[in-house]
Amino acid sequence: MNFEDLYETYSTDIYRFAFWLTGDRHQAEDITSETFIRAWTNRSNIRTETLKAYILTIARNIFLEQNRRKKPEVPLDEMVPDPAPGPDAQLESRLELLRIRAILRNLPEIDRTAFILRVFQDLSYAEIARVLELSLSALKVKVYRVRKTIMADLMGKEASRS
Questions:
Q1: How far apart are CA 115 and CA 146, in angstroms?
Q2: What DSSP string describes 15-80?
Q3: pTM over 0.85
Q4: Residues 6+ apart with CB under 8 A from 6
Q5: Stretch 22-41: mean pLDDT
Q6: 62 near 52, Cβ under 8 Å?
Q7: Who's near 121: CB < 8 A, 6+ residues apart?
Q8: Residue 45 clears pLDDT 80, i.e. is over it
Q9: Which of 70, 92, 78, 28 shows the shortest CA–CA distance to 11?
């Protein structure tokens, strides 16, 4: 596989993963670029079953490196409504997505990463367990607890609107 094929095949997945981790478009673009540079220069060192899992691991490691280097930031208010006009259903979906992102950002990094890899990147539990160096049962518990946390928060918001 040449670099162009590698990039075309996985760039969208890596960008989405990086965006879910960071919540910032520019930082996600930087992580995506750096991921492919590292993957290409170290292509002989693949240590997981799939190339996708290997590249996602690189992206996560870059994210963690950036977090160790940067100074603490004050989080922005994520409840700012979308200024673009649109149907009520679109607005409700957008707000729900923002609430889920806020919930995920408040979770420990390992829980957030496990959930994102399972739900948004569609990796198997076995692959994720290897990438995160967790037991299969511990990983399943983490993903379940994140889902439970999200559902509890969303149900609480719905009940308060009634």
A1: 7
A2: HHHHHHHH--HHHHHHHHHHHHHHHHHTGGG--SSSHHHHHHHHHHHHHHHHHHHSPP-PPP-TTP
A3: no
A4: 36, 39, 40, 51
A5: 92
A6: no
A7: 13, 16, 17, 52, 56
A8: no
A9: 28
- Residue 34 near residue 111 (C-beta atoms within 8 A): no
Q: What is the pLDDT of residue 138?
A: 95
| CB of 121 closer than 8 Å to CB of 56 | yes
CB 27 within 8 A of CB 36: no
- Report the percent of the chain where pLDDT is more than 70: 86
> Which pLDDT tens digit goes with each residue over 81-104?
656 656 777 778 888 888 888 999
Distance CA 89, CA 59 (A): 33
Percentage of residues in the chain having pLDDT higher than 90:
51
Tokens 């399972």 -> residue = 118
